[in-house]
Predict the structure.
Amino acid sequence: MKREILSKLIEISRNPYPYLKEWKKEKGKKILGSTLADVPEEIIYASGAHPFLILGTTKPLRLATTRLPDNACSLSRSNLELVLTYEGELFDGYVLPQVCDTTQHLCDIWKRKFSDRYFENFLVPRQVNRPSAGYWYIQESERLIWSLERYLGIKIKEDALWEAIDIYNENRRLLRSLYDIKRKHPGMLTNREFFDIVKSGFFMDKKEHNMLLKELIDSIDIEKDKKEDDYVPIVVAGIVVEPNEIFDFMDNGKINVVSDDLCTGSRYIEVETKKEGTPIEAIADAYLKKGPFSPIHDEGNKMFYNLKNRVEKYGAKGIIYVHIKYCESQDYDFPDLRRNLKAQGIKVLEVETEYQTTHMGQTKTRIQAFVEALSEEARNE
Amino acid sequence: MSEEKQEKKMTAKELSKKLTIEYLESARHARENGKFIGYTTAVSPVELFVAHDIIPIYPENHSVAAITKRLTTKLSQAMEKEGYTTHLCAYARSDLGYRITGESAMGGIPDPDFILACNAQCFTLTKWFEVLSRKYNIPVFVFDTPQWIRDEETRKRIIKYCVMQLKEQIKAQEEVTGKKFDYDRLAEVMEYSRDASHLYRQFLDLAAYKPSPISIFDALIHMAITVYLRGTPQAVHYYRYLIDEIMEEKVKKGKGAIENERFRLYWENLPVWFKFRNHFNLLAQYGGNILTSLYVHAWSYDFDTSKDPLLTLAENYVSVFSNVTLEERADMALDLFKRYDLNGSIMFLNRSCKAVSFSVHELRDMLTEKTGIPALVFESDMGDPRFYAEAQVKNRIQAYFETLEAREEAKELA
């Protein structure tokens, strides 16, 4: 396996800003930031601008605390902080989705703070099961296209949209095949490495990401690279896993993340946009069929069945549920989810996280204890 | 003695109580009478329920009753034991606690046949109602209202999306009730809703008189009827009765809600429900009276019955203050400052209500900039006394009135 490619992707995932500053200088493209989730990146890509998914900062909060109360979720506060204090200069504009009360307010606050930049909100349908949801996703996608066309002074052609869909489909296919390899040979690629690779794709030029992924996958020689070891298969649930040292704790505990329902994981990479109808219809269809995502209303138990199926399909021994502090959706979802999973005999560990946390020791210990209990159980079986 | 004569002796408050008891009785006997129970959110197109033999039940109102009876801490603790956190909305905490303990300030509420959540008010309700939907094993119908952004073309599309959803809602209701939806009945319900909403607004606008004959605390008490009896002739009658009473008892006599009114205040957010009488008395000591808030105006709808009822329903519910942009919300508040000639502002950062609170800092900046009136921001919870620091609130209010006094004196000198 070409370790240098792996290192490059990991480096970008951990600090994408030097890469992007260079890249921007070279390509002369506009960089448009979005937050989670469900902004159709393909449309931004097709416009010629560069879509960048803002995933917070672990650096200290300075200004966000004066704009958002401390019971706003850690992700929203650290996203706002990132652009207010640390990396705001990089962005030419923003396309922010409204998926919950917090993101709705965040749009208003953000727009006022950056009145000199391009700003568009994406009003995601917050119900997904009725025909009207599809109608609305298409309407919003069209509005985004017009807005970008006005801003950039261009026309987004259908061919450009299909090309973007192809590039994104390829990206997701490559990530799925890498996930397959990692799942089967956990000693070869750690959890942290794999999810860092996924993350780098939210920041980088997608074509370049595809190229590097392909080269990396082609360079893997399973017989040579694999390291046999005993790993405990686990499903990770939640929205994001941040700070991503949490994956290191899983690696140290010899956990193999065999599946997940993260926005920055399977919920993203399992999407396959079918090339049917118009490009916008195809994108809307793919987005609405994505896995369940906490803030969006779906059937009440869909998240539970989805996780249960993942556990059964991949023979996982338990679930680690990563709960972003003050994420209201997760606050409402989790008690029922845990009860229902427990009733199925599925072990669940809840880990509450905060971007600005300085003491991860307890999380580390709890993950370690959880995996030990599961291993003990497996030995007794 | 005729019923009308008997009623004449009643105060509006007593009439409200009587209507509430009748409404709850009808809900408790809904099923015997071939009717259904629909849970819904306070801001929602409940007219579709009323026209379809679905009696609306508002878990939020039930929770307000629990809060004012000081049951919330206990109910919340029951829910916390099941793994929920104290960060949740106090309405949701009271309700989820009620589902566990059965303890209620109103003798309980019937279980639902249908659950509707309109997210114009907040998104929290959707999540809370999802918990109820799992409990009762029935789906939640989400009436999704995208933010009412200021763009005419987008607004047309939002309305189209909302009308589509109202049609979907009617279909879902037909499946539950087994009854065909009657649009003629809806037209009738819309007329009652239109009239009650206009009268409710007239009632709130009595605050423009000097001195104001009402305080926000009157509004908070009397809004209950338009919340749960919207779309009925009783609500129309009630607000006429109430306005007549205030005109007779206060306005004609030149009496204000407080004596020596000096400060006419705006309130941002929902009230601290378990403290509002104390707040009224505390402020009155300084000659302060809170006259209004965007929250109490959330039910001042303006239904245009010459339009397709689904269209006017969509237009009214999507544009409620909690679903507009911050700029528009500031404009709505400024309109109240102007119409009621306000000279003070208390902004409550309510831990329970993320939907209304998260922009409070930003809103304060905008309002202060436009009006020049300083604002007091204080943080607490609308329902749980564990998060209310009595001494701190008192001190801050006192300091705030000192600022206002100094400001008035400076004005007088000038």
Observations:
- The beta strands of chain B are 36-39, 54-57, 114-118, 140-143, 263-268, 288-292, 344-350, 375-380.
- The longest helix of chain B spans residues 152-177.
- Chain B touches chain A through 47 residues (CB under 8 Å).
- Chain B has one domain: 3-413.
